[in-house]
TrEMBL record:
It comes from Novimethylophilus kurashikiensis. The lineage of its organism: Bacteria, Pseudomonadati, Pseudomonadota, Betaproteobacteria, Nitrosomonadales. It is found in: Cell inner membrane. It comes from the Bacteria. Signal peptide: none annotated. Residues 24-279 form the EAL domain. This is Diguanylate cyclase.
């Protein structure tokens, strides 16, 4: 019957697809309440200086502890939050939590090479919002020097409505925050962005790190990213480092920072501080 009615017909909507859509709808409804019910958290993952072995930065990653489904991955609910327009509220909350964690870290830290927190921002968060000014104001309200904050963006963001994105990114940068290009090498990697936008860090995507030990091409790619970054005055952070051997190869090619399960998984803020103290 479906065949008779042609290609664009609803019969292609299989029960499995229907189930998926329903799950999404139900998650979307729950997400509306997640904030007010305190179900969101941030976790921090250490970022280590590859030479000194010290934890010098941390990435803030949002977590949703759903009452029925347990931990829901941000890869799953961030896109929903974007579609529903909830991403601004969630993103502002994540930023403030991260900034407060950074203030705590600063208060506990003794060395003078301490330290930065990075926060992920999706392209949608830049649309119809005043990210630039409100975030700068927030940092000044809690007396956190903006140089302790790194904003992680992806290439897709730089592909958007450029003029507008430019102005907002510029505002964050002028205030003293730094910028990292996340998942580098997986998107368009149009090198012209590196010229136009003032980026401070390139994050070498996990997909190049995973097979570093066995695939000489991945080593070549990692090395090429590091060389280019350094020539442009940027630093590199490798993501998803799970083994000592991967770390050694990254050190050989001159990568600056490493992040991954080899050191620690993302963890709640209090655990992160306990982890630092135990080191
Ligand atoms: P990302 O920014 O590239 O974050 C790195 C992801 O890799 C995190 O997944 C982290 O837990 C995971 N990871 C770190 N080390 C390892 C490792 O050694 N092995 C493996 N297999 N994985 C590792 P997570 O926390 O599930 O986040 C997924 C993505 O969701 C993030 O990718 C980011 O794009 C997005 N995201 C997370 N938090 C936020 C947020 O607050 N706002 C926005 N807009 N996006 C977020
Ligand atoms: Mg990131
Ligand atoms: Mg990444
Ligand atoms: Mg990613």
């Amino acid at each position: 019957f479906a065949k008779e009615r042609g290609r664009n017909c609803f019969s292609f909507f299989t029960p499995a697809m229907q189930k998926q859509v329903q799950q999404r709808l139900s998650l979307a409804n729950d997400l509306r309440e997640a904030m007010s019910k305190d179900q969101l958290q941030i976790h921090l993952q250490p970022i280590v200086d590859i030479v000194s072995g010290q934890v010098v930065k941390a990435e803030a990653l949002v977590r949703w502890k759903h009452p029925k489904h347990g931990m829901v991955s941000p890869d799953k609910f961030i896109p929903i939050a974007e579609e529903m327009g909830l991403i601004h509220e969630i993103g502002d909350w994540v930023f403030r939590q991260a900034a407060e964690a950074m203030s705590l870290w600063l208060a506990k830290a003794t060395g003078n090479d301490c330290c930065q927190i990075s926060v992920n921002i999706s392209a949608r968060q830049f649309m119809h919002s005043d990210i630039g000014n409100s975030w700068v104001d927030y940092l000044s309200a809690i007396h956190l020097p903006p140089s302790h904050v790194v904003i992680e963006i992806t290439e897709s963001l730089l592909l958007g409505d450029e003029a507008d994105v430019m102005v907002k990114l510029q505002r964050l940068r002028e205030a003293g925050m730094q910028l990292a290009l996340d998942d580098f090498g997986t998107g368009y990697s149009a090198m012209s962005y590196l010229k136009k936008f003032n980026i401070d860090y390139l994050k070498i995507d996990r997909s190049f790190v995973r097979d570093l030990e066995s695939d000489p091409n991945d080593r070549a790619i990692a090395e090429a990213i590091v060389v280019m970054a350094h020539r442009l005055g940027l630093r590199t952070i490798a993501e998803g480092v799970e083994t000592e051997h991967q770390k050694d190869i990254l050190a050989q090619v001159g990568c600056d920072y490493v992040q991954g399960y080899l050191y620690a998984k993302p963890m709640p803020v209090e655990e992160f501080f306990a982890f630092l103290e135990a080191k």
